[in-house]
Design brief:
Layout (H helix, E strand, L loop, with lengths): L2 E10 L2 E11 L4 E6 L5 H9 L6 E6 L2 E2 L7 E4 L11 H11 L4 H14 L15 H13 L5 E5 L7 H16 L3 E5 L3 H7 L2 E6 L2 E7 H8 L4 E6 L12 E7 L2 E6 L2 H13 L4 E5 L5 H9 L5
Parallel strand pairs: 3-8, 3-9, 6-7, 7-8
Antiparallel strand pairs: 1-2, 1-4, 4-5, 9-10, 11-13, 11-14, 12-13
Helix pairs in contact: 2-3, 2-4
The structure holds adenosine-5'-triphosphate (ATP).
The site of adenosine-5'-triphosphate has 11 residues, from strand 2 and helix 1.
Length: about 300
């Protein structure tokens, strides 16, 4: 079941925050919604959640207009919101029942998730007595307790230690495996690269990239370029082979080639000269560098 956002427009007074954006997320897919501060991510998420009303455009799930009554959504907002003076158990039962679970069903899920997050001992404690990271676990549990069809996670890993980040990632991947459609917004590019199937990059309310993670990396990576790590200088062997030295650092040579055969000839020659090829790899750019390249020259 697909989540579709079509021609979404939203203005705040005279300022147009979304200029008619269109994208979709398939069932069991994780879509990373990226952009600089103020690009329009929260406005998009709040429109999907029905928290704000867009000026125009459609939001569909399974080809029908998305409503909170017809589709179950789990939302982890960027501004976390828990009742500090309420016990963990009561709070989670309340969220579970709000999302259609019976008390018994909610309690069963809660105990299982608290155990999975290694915080079952806090079941009867007030939320305010928990650490920041543990409060965040309660917030995530409240978002996924009812096994939603759509999960919207805004900066889910902020403020977590590395062990808890792994725990959160595994939980998100479990949701994906169970067919949840997931929208994920984060400024931590390495997490996005690891977790997401597709990326939508927003800039000032417009989509500037909408592609798979691998497609995007392929698109931005240098073409016909190879990195060779060797044990001595190889510049004398690059002449007359249609090979162009782009850069060299610590005997790692970045070489541009026209045909793969030119490289084969080079490798043979290096072998004959007893020059050791320590590493051969194609330079791939990271999502972090794509983000900076695509968005840094635009003011936020
Ligand atoms: P961040 O990464 O900082 O959370 P974002 O991509 O989520 O940013 P939005 O919160 O969607 O960005 O904001 C998009 C634009 O709309 C910004 O220029 C913001 O100042 C403006 N905006 C958001 N909410 C309102 C509002 N209630 N009233 C007026 N302008 C708003």
């Amino acid at each position: 079941m697909k989540l579709e956002v079509q021609n979404l427009v939203k203005s705040y007074g005279n300022f147009q925050a979304l200029n008619g954006i269109t994208f979709s997320v398939e069932r069991g897919q994780i879509l990373g919604l990226l952009g600089r501060n103020g690009a329009g991510k929260t406005t998009t998420i709040k429109s999907i959640m029905g928290i704000i009303e867009p000026d125009s455009g459609d939001i569909l799930f399974d080809k029908k207009p998305l409503t909170r009554d017809s589709v179950s959504i789990g939302y982890l907002p960027e501004e976390r919101g828990l009742y500090m003076n309420t016990r963990v158990k009561d709070q989670l039962v309340y969220f579970g029942m709000l999302n259609g679970l019976s008390k018994a069903e909610a309690l069963q899920e809660i105990k299982q998730l608290l155990e999975q997050f290694e915080i079952l001992q806090y079941l009867n404690k007030k939320v305010k007595t928990l650490s920041k990271g543990n409060k965040q676990k309660i917030q995530l549990i409240s978002a996924i307790l009812h096994r939603p069809q759509i999960a919207i996670l805004d900066e889910p890993f902020s403020g977590l230690d590395p062990v808890n980040i792994e725990l959160f990632k595994n939980t998100v991947l479990d949701l994906k495996k169970n067919g949840t459609t997931i929208l994920f917004s984060s400024h931590r590019m390495e997490d996005v690269e690891e977790m997401c199937d597709r990326i939508v990059m927003l800039n000032k309310g417009n989509i500037v990239e909408n592609d798979t993670v691998s497609g995007l990396i392929e698109k931005y990576s240098k073409k016909n370029t190879i990195l060779l790590q060797v044990n001595q200088d190889i510049t004398p062997f690059l002449h007359n082979k249609n090979l162009k030295l782009q850069s060299e650092h610590n005997l790692i040579f970045e070489i541009q080639y026209e045909k793969k055969e030119d490289l084969t000839v080079l490798y043979q020659e290096l072998l004959q000269q007893n020059i050791q090829l320590i590493k051969v790899e194609e330079p791939k750019c990271s999502l972090q560098s794509i983000f900076i390249k695509e968005l840094s020259d635009h003011e936020s």
